[in-house]
Amino acid sequence: MEQTNAEVGFVMALTHATPFEWIVAIKEDAFLQMGDLVETITKIPGATAGARPRQVRLSGLVVDVGSVHEGVKLETDVFLTRRGVLPCSISRTARVRTTRVQEVGSGFEGGPGAEVWVPPLPGDAVVRVVGDSREAALYMDQMREDERVPIGLTRDQMPYVLDFAFFAGEKGGHVNISGISGVATKTSMASMLLYSLFHNATLPQRIQNNAKAVIFNVKGEDLLFLDKKNTMYENPTTPAEMAKARAVVEGYAAMQLPMNAFKSVSFRVPPQKVDDVSLAVVPHVSSRPLTDAAIVPYWWTVRDVVTQRLLRYLFSEGQDHGSQVTDLAMLLEDRLAKDFQVVPSSPWAVSLPKPGAKSSQGARVIVATLKELVDYIEAQFEQEDSEWTGKSAGQTLMAFNRRLNSAERHLKHLIRPQVNTRAGGPLEDLQAQVTVIDIHQLAERAQRFVVGVVLSRIFEARETQPQNNHVFVVLDELNKYAPREGDSPLKEVLLDIAERGRSMNVLLIGAQQTASEVERRIVSNAAVRILGRLDLAEAQRPEYAFLDTNERARVGLLKPGSMLVLQPHVPMAIEISFPFPCWATRSREANMTPPAATSGFQAIVPTVSFGDL
Amino acid sequence: MSPLRLTQDPWSPERGSSIDAEHGPEASSRSQVDIQDVEPGQPWAIVTVRPPDATTVPNWVFLDGTRRVEANLFIEDSDTNRIFPVVIGSAAVGAVQTGQQVRILTESFQVSHLMVAAHGAPSGFEPLTLQFGAQSRLYEYVVPHQAPMLGRPTSQELTATLQDKMRRMEGSLAAQIQAWPTPPEVLCIDGPLSYDTDTGESIGLIKRQSTQYLSGDHERIFADLSPGNRTPLFRIHGQQNKLGRFSWFCRLMERRGAMGMLSGIMRCEVNESIGVRRAMILANMTAQWLHHFGSTTGSDPRAPQNLYPIGALEHSLKHYLGDSLLIARSLSLSLDARL
Prior knowledge:
The complex is a heterodimer. The two termini of chain A are 41 Å apart. The longest helix of chain A has 21 residues, at 444-464. By secondary structure, chain A is of the alpha/beta class. Chain A is built from 17 helices and 21 strands. The termini of chain B are far apart. Chain A binds chain B through residues 71-74, 77, 80-81, 83-89, and chain B through 55-57, 59, 96-104, 292-293, 298-299, 308-309, 312-313, 315-316.
């Protein structure tokens, strides 16, 4: 697909051109737009290498374009020009920010050339970059061939790639995506990242086959069709559909990605809410049949909560920050872990010393439901035994109780007396390549519990037993789970992943509407920053200081499917667009009819622990 | 009511006055002019012309020239102890097209660089070359053959040579334009038609009224002259190397408030040789359109007579002469190098 470099204009310098920024006067029969990649080759005055003059190639990104009437004095002169009275010329220019400076032919054995920081000269010809010069402008020559993950197309409809070494931990890790809900297509972008990761032809099979991904589905059931191919592009009928289908097919072809569904996906959904938690678990899903083998419910037992010390994750609400509630939760975790005994006949339950009795001997009670656990803790508090209350004041105990009762209301169907091997259970079994964990129908306290437990279990498993394969965690609404202000056990887990996850091959693909509301250390640890459409006021915040003034305006106008991408190699945010998903995002696209009502549910799923991933 | 009235010239005073002639009953006698019965069947009264239908102005071409003196020099002859004043300067001419394809015809631009010495200066003096980076500019050495006009200062004499050069360039460009495969509907030249070359059907546009051609009763016609109509043709007799011409007046802007009777008027002229019928047609076209090109006060110090297309052309031509400061610097370097 080698094209000739098309000359679009000349360097113009009514004010100083610098090695970092220069202006192109655009030729009458050409155009440049924001996001175009161009280059100019300039002589280094007075410098020769042998007999030939030394030259520098300045590659850059068009960050601003403008036009002006020349030869007019008044704003209203445009009317005279339209009437044919006043002649004037139109000048169009493009402001270019240099992405790379390289001396031509100076690289050792075709490697990168020396940096020579001279400005281009007025009159130097400017061309669009193609082929090798495009790769150089985008530093693709600095990435290993088998580590280029295509994530979209630049303005010239050529693939833009992320460097896997920076994406997956070797040199850097984590991705952060910002953008307004609904238009910024954050979820699609994150899914595209994973799709490309698992299905591109460049990454070594060893890495692709062993990598896992966990996606928390926070909105709708869009992500519950990842395993189905999007059939909308197969038989387009209207001209609009045909044009769309063609664009999609061409997009995937340009990115060298197959058009298919995700090849290995498991969907984990919460149980339906019931008053009697002893009833059989029925998965809470409306867009797919309950008998679908790919749909597996998840829940925990009281024994899981006690043995795995999960109590603290019931207390990750915003209002819990800064209180002593979480300290008390951890004290109780210790206490419960020390006092419990298994109940052989009921693998979901624990036996605990009767409140008021000494822990080592005496009467015991069996706790099997969350309600019973809550009641048990309250009864212990009433004993005013410092082994159970620590130094907590009465107010803290009351606050704790209030939250505990609220948690019981929202999580009783998630922590219930049923064994976990029959048809689901705790989220220990990330067996498929991609596991979608649906939390969109849960109350906030329950969402935080699920996210906190899953992430801490993944992290702890890898802390005790290092693994070579990668786990990518996709989590939207980071501002909720790791807000800038306050502390919570969940935020701690996320910070752990952001700061230490890279060395354990746990990578976070985090997203939020506004990066300014997310814990700074989480955003700043992301090697790759991606922006969809932003609120214009948000775009002015220092979290986006890497954007030029015009890019800040541009980011407010990005349409769905267009993003600005910043990765460590390239010193500038590059605008990309990515094609519509080739996997289904709703039942219509998957050629499925949504199920009518609840039907019998029996699915057996083997359980694998995180340590085995 | 008093017959006396104080009126104002719309021109900005730094560009002089739009009326530069004495006005009174006797002043016109100096020019040889026929006024009555020049235009067949037309009494000396306003000629009303049907307004055009189009909103876009027609495809006309306007031609103009500009000149600039860059520096005053001297040729000092140490043998004879004589000193000859010299100027170096440039003249540029070009054209602009109006209408649908309104644009400055930069391809028509011609620029000349002269080094003019006073009469009597040695001939065959080496031309001056100025260097601008990789480019150079040659100033052609010229000494006028004619002795200077009596009483005219030498500096004016030298400038006049440059002016003549510009006029000749204008004439030759006008001839070129008229020789186009499809010549413009109308070719207007900024200034009077006083060239030795035949400018064919070109219309000369005279912004500043420095000769009074009409007087007394005839001049009253200005009271009714307004944009869209014109005066009848009158004939200006030829003299020396000037051809006879038909001439008429148009007004470029509505008179308002304290504007004088002669404010905003443009005198037009064509060569007598094109015939009175053709002259009438051209005169009617100017009555229809010329005021559409008139500039507005504030946009040009010589509004409305310095027409929009000509103002833009002038600006562009001056730009082609180059940057004065750069030329002055190159000149000093060049003269130093000669020593």
